[in-house]
């Protein structure tokens, strides 16, 4: 895994100027590739490609990038891995291709020479973001993998196209207009991330997963990218060719395919391990890794002092049963708190998913011993793992035919009681009836139900389930000129409501939140994260599997559980879904209170957020009238990001955004 950056411009820059630009932009990505760097420029066409390498396969100079194809036609910079490169290499060699090294990059270029770019990309199994310059056609192709595992940002303005693995590379480019996109900010406040193709900046877009953008004239508006794969197309194809076998047939087929996906992702010329939470997804990946390994797999997990957020004991039990070489690190509140000053630097587009904190910590732990780590991301979105799929479908199906006017009364009743009071009622009931008092975060769930009841349509009900702020427009000072990116349910007649929610998550939440989070957190410490469950062939099979293989007895991931049970006793992994998070509310009330308050009120005159609304919501939160810690965290993270990135382009130093960490105490 690496970092790429470049420009394509009609500015008449000299070779020396282009080289300096490419070096400066790729230098901003040094954390993604500390092992090597390279630049290629052609001043006659205004193209410059810069690269930072994290050496994983073929550690020799033969894997150096930018790399030119044997024909001389293509020059590539490539972030990611093509896992089936050995199979493709054998096929290409049988056709007369000769290779100098054994990197997948060289195979990619040979495939382009042999089959052309799009035909070749359709044959790749892997995760990748690529910039490919066609010398013959003078055409730049920007390519992103099917699921959006690897990022690619593109800036276009005044005859300049710049691109890179992270926004910080574009900000380090020859010029950059930092005008914010108000609609993207609105979406961020709702969902805690900016949905593609938008970015937080008006003149930057994210290339959508499974698309190729071809640019011939940098002065012209960006062309429409062309898709070579999409989750929607996979869903439609899967619905048209549903799996007709029985339980054992389905389990065998998925286990065979998933085992192959894991095996391919265990190829590396550097130390390799896995991140293990002890949940269904990561445990399944580790079990399949250990089954195909000839030595104990290195596994890593972190633990917290607060039981409600600690999965370390579960991970340790799974690791012991499987016989992995397990490393567990228990962190104090101060350890977690110390990460927060770095978040705005690492996440150079606002992100407020609080699991970014433990994700970064476990990546740091793993990087002490390995350079590559497999993760369990994707299992929930493919196999119905989220509670909101099952419960949300039941609620929406039950309420959507009820007139909205009749839903308003119970909605008002649910939300008129503060979330804190609901939780106190739960705790009181729990002391008398332990089983009845089991629901976690009861108050938040009651308020979510109230918001759902107020929604005007099925789309609105679904959106309410995802929203940190139900009306984020009220927080943004300037009204967006275009409709903001929104979570939409595709109208595919053969899909049930649950499947529509899963598809929407695969298209947006998965690439723009979860995978972006893992990419930035892992790359910040020069760790390559691989996601075998998101092999596109596994995704395609998941859409062929009828619902009964995913959800049974209102419980998701049935088929993954059956595969895991072959390796691990159910008692070790069957428990209430915990998630990978942190006690935000306690932090914001405690050691982060002064820092968060200073940040929230520091930009009262900048005209970006409505200062009176922000102050009102912060006061409500502190008074206990609101437990919207996720929404408050989104505001805090935006202000921290604003302090870091809306300053002079020459200011690339990390900002000391947290001073309370030195004295604040944190109980995790």
Strand % is 5-15%
Instruction: Tell me the overall shape.
Output: globular
Roughly how much helix do the residues carry, as a percent range? Answer: 40-55%
Mean pLDDT: 88
What structural category arises from helix and sheet content? Answer: alpha+beta
The overall strand count is 17
Strand order of the largest sheet: 2-3-1-9-8-10
Instruction: Characterize the largest beta sheet: strand count, sense, and whether it forms a barrel.
Output: 6 strands, antiparallel
Radius of gyration: 25 Å
The number of helical segments is 26
What gap, in angstroms, lies between the N and C termini? 33 Å
Task: Show unreliable segments.
Answer: 648-668
Summarize the model shown:
Helix content is 44%, strand content 14%. With 668 residues, it is α+β, with helices and mostly antiparallel strands.
Polypeptide structure, described:
This protein has 668 residues and is an alpha+beta fold. 44% of the residues lie in helices and 14% in strands. It has 26 helices and 17 strands. Strands 2-3-1-9-8-10 form a 6-stranded antiparallel beta sheet. A hairpin with a 2-residue loop joins strand 8 (153-157) and strand 9. Helix 9 (280-292) packs parallel to helix 10 (312-322) and helix 24 (593-602) packs across helix 26 (629-645). It starts with a strand and ends in a 23-residue tail after the last helix. The model is unreliable at 648-668 (pLDDT under 50).
């Amino acid at each position: 895994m690496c970092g790429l950056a470049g420009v394509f411009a009609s500015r008449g820059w000299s070779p020396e100027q282009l080289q300096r630009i490419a070096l400066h932009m790729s230098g901003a990505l040094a954390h993604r590739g500390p092992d090597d760097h390279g630049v290629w420029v052609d001043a006659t066409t205004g193209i410059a490609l810069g690269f930072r390498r994290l050496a994983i396969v073929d550690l020799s100079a033969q894997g150096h990038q930018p790399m030119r194809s044997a024909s001389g036609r293509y020059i590539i910079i490539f972030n990611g891995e093509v896992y089936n490169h050995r199979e493709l290499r054998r096929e290409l060699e049988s056709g007369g291709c000769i290779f100098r090294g054994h990197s997948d990059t060289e195979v990619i270029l040979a495939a382009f020479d042999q089959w052309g770019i799009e035909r070749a990309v359709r044959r790749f199994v892997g995760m990748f973001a690529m910039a490919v310059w066609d010398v013959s056609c003078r055409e730049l192709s920007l390519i992103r993998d099917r699921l959006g595992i690897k990022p690619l940002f593109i800036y276009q303005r005044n005859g300049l196209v710049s691109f890179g693995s992270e926004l910080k590379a574009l900000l380090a480019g020859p010029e950059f207009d930092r005008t914010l996109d108000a609609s993207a900010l609105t979406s961020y406040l709702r969902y805690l991330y900016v949905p593609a193709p938008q970015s937080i900046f008006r003149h930057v877009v994210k290339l959508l997963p499974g698309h190729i953008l071809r640019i011939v004239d940098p002065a012209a508006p960006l062309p429409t990218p062309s898709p070579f794969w999409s989750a929607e197309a996979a869903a439609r194809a899967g619905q048209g060719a549903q799996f007709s076998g029985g339980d054992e047939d389905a389990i065998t087929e998925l286990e065979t395919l998933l085992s192959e996906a894991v095996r391919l992702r265990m190829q590396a010329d550097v130390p390799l391990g896995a991140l293990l939470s002890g949940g269904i997804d990561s445990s399944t990946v580790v079990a399949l890794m250990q089954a195909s390994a000839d030595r104990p797999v290195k596994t890593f997990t972190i633990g917290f002092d607060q039981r409600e957020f600690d999965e370390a004991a579960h991970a340790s039990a799974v690791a012991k049963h499987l016989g992995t070489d397990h490393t567990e690190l228990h962190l104090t509140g101060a350890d977690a708190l110390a990460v927060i000053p770095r978040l705005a630097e690492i996440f150079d587009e606002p992100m407020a998913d609080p699991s970014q904190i433990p994700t970064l910590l476990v990546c740091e732990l793993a990087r002490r011993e390995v350079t590559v780590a497999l993760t369990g991301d994707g299992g929930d979105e493919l196999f119905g793992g989220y509670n909101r799929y099952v419960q949300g479908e039941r609620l929406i199906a039950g309420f959507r035919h009820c007139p909205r006017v009749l839903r308003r009364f119970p909605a008002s009743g649910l939300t008129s009681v503060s979330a804190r009071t609901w939780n106190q009622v739960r705790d009181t009931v729990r002391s008398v009836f332990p089983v009845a008092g089991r629901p976690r975060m009861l108050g938040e769930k009651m308020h979510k139900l109230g918001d759902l009841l107020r929604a005007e349509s099925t789309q609105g009900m679904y959106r309410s389930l995802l929203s940190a702020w139900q009306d984020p427009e009220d927080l943004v000072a300037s009204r967006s000129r275009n409709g903001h990116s929104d979570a939409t349910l595709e109208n595919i007649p053969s899909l049930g409501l649950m499947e529509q929610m899963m598809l929407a998550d695969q298209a947006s939440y998965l690439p723009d939140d979860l995978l972006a989070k893992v990419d930035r957190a892992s790359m910040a410490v020069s760790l390559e994260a691989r996601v075998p469950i998101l092999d596109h062939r596994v995704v395609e099979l998941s859409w062929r599997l009828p619902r009964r293989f995913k959800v049974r007895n209102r419980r998701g991931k049935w088929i993954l559980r059956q595969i895991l049970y072959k390796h691990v006793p159910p008692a070790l992994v069957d428990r209430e879904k915990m998630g990978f998070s942190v006690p935000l509310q306690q932090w914001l009330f405690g050691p982060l209170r002064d820092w968060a308050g200073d940040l929230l009120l520091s930009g009262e005159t900048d005209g970006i957020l409505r200062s009176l609304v922000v102050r009102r919501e912060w006061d409500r939160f502190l008074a206990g009238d609101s437990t919207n810690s996720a929404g408050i965290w989104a505001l805090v993270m935006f202000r921290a990001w604003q302090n870091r990135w809306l300053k002079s382009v020459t200011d690339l130093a990390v900002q000391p955004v947290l001073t309370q960490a030195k004295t604040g105490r944190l109980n995790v």
